[in-house]
Design brief:
184 residues; mainly alpha; two-stranded parallel sheet; 8 helices; 9% strand
Length: 184
C-alpha cells in the first residue's frame, strides 16, 4: 500500500493502520488488500472503484486516530462490496449496485469496528450523526466551481431526476461534493 502526502499525513495514516492491526489483524489484512493507495487530498474523500485509491482530506486524517482507522476500514469494505458487484456482473449474474444498502452495510461495519477499538462516545456519535443524515435522505450535493459549471451540474441533476429517478437517488446518496477542476 502506498501512502502519499506530507509527513504528518503519513504519520497519522500509519497510526490509524497500526490501530486497526492491533485491534484485528484480519481486518488490517482486509484493508491492505483492498486499498491500493492512500493519498492526501485537501478537499474530501473520492471513491474510485478499481485499484482503490483513497483520497483523504485533513478533516479525517487529522482527526482522532480511531475515527481515521474506522474510515479506512469503511472504505476498504465499500471497495469490497463494489468489487463483489462488479464480479457478479462480469460473470453474467447481473445485479444493480444498491448504493443505499451498501452505505448502510459499510456504516454497520464501521460501528462494529469502532466498538471493537473502544472508540470514545463522541467519535461514535459523530459517525452516527453522519450516518443518520445519509439514511434520512438529507442528501445535498455541494457543487463547487464557476457559475457556468454549477448551472450545468444542476441542470444535469434535474434531467436525471426527471428521467431516471432511481439513478438520481443513487447519485444523491453517494456523492457529497462535485468540484470543478480546470484542465490546466
Amino acid at each position: 500500500m502506498e501512502i502519499i502526502g506530507d509527513k504528518e499525513f503519513i504519520r497519522n495514516t500509519k497510526k490509524a493502520l497500526k490501530l486497526i492491526e492491533e485491534t484485528d489483524r484480519e481486518k488490517y489484512e482486509f484493508v491492505v488488500s483492498r486499498i491500493y493507495k492512500i493519498q492526501k487530498n485537501n478537499i474530501t474523500f473520492l471513491y474510485p472503484y478499481t485499484n482503490t485509491i483513497y483520497f483523504v482530506g485533513n478533516d479525517i486524517s487529522k482527526a482522532d486516530t480511531c475515527l481515521y482507522a474506522s474510515c479506512l476500514l469503511r472504505e476498504a469494505y465499500h471497495a469490497y462490496l463494489v468489487s463483489v458487484n462488479y464480479k457478479k456482473n462480469q460473470s453474467g449474474d447481473y445485479c444493480c449496485y444498491d448504493g443505499k444498502a451498501s452505505m448502510i452495510e459499510t456504516y454497520q461495519f464501521q460501528f462494529e469496528m469502532l466498538n471493537k477499538m473502544n472508540a470514545p462516545k463522541e467519535i461514535i456519535d459523530f459517525v452516527r450523526n453522519e450516518y443518520n443524515d445519509k439514511v434520512e435522505d438529507k442528501h445535498k450535493i455541494k457543487i463547487i466551481g464557476t457559475r457556468e459549471f454549477v448551472s450545468k451540474v444542476k441542470d444535469a441533476l434535474l434531467i436525471l431526476k426527471e428521467r431516471d429517478y432511481m439513478s438520481y437517488k443513487v447519485v444523491i446518496q453517494n456523492i457529497g461534493k462535485i468540484i470543478y477542476y480546470p484542465s490546466s
